[in-house]
Amino acid sequence: MATSPVVPDKRPQEELNRAVIFLGPPGAGKGTQAKKLAAKYSVPHLSTGDMLREHVARGTPLGVKAKPIMERGELVSDSLVLKIVAERIERPDCSHGFVFDGFPRTVAQAQYLGELLKQHGYRRPVVIHLLIDTALILRRITGRRTCKMGGEIYNLFERPPKVEGRCDDDGGELWQRPDDREEIVGPRLRAYEKQTEPLVAYYRRLGLLHDVDASKSVEEVEQQIWRTLHQARGKH
Question: What is the set of active-site residues?
């Protein structure tokens, strides 16, 4: 009798059962790698920006408070962000762990998150610190061009279009976002370093920080992260 083919389970045999936190400057690939890891473990990829927008769209009490602040282009207060994070990780889809992208941003947020994770019975978080040279970041960000029609992303240095200024797929015009210009990127990077230095030191002191070389290809960085996480899981 013919047997049906066995479909391999893409989810790792072990549950994540913890938070994985990505730290790294703009252009280091945090979003890409965080999404890949979340998909591998079938756990939520959590971005505070997405969470805030969801609350605003749903008109929740937290969203009602956040909406006017966001509309003015101001930063939402720590207390509001932390309430939104606390609400999110209590949902059932977070019961096996989750991946943070862009949170926490300060030592105070990290301390609050640590207590929150303890209260919910999660193991100690793993913090992936993406390291990359500033010159390479500038090359990645300032060379980025986006198709106005389909949203396809190119890089003039690493993945240029076949025809200058035009998308390979639909011929749409390629444009550079205003915040991808060098005069904007430089101050953003300096602000990131100043803000994140204490956070990196905090997690390193706790033995939770793992440095990963983000200058390699997306696939190579993904493999490094996977090996790092596998080793870290055995330690804490």
Answer: 30, 105, 144, 177, 188
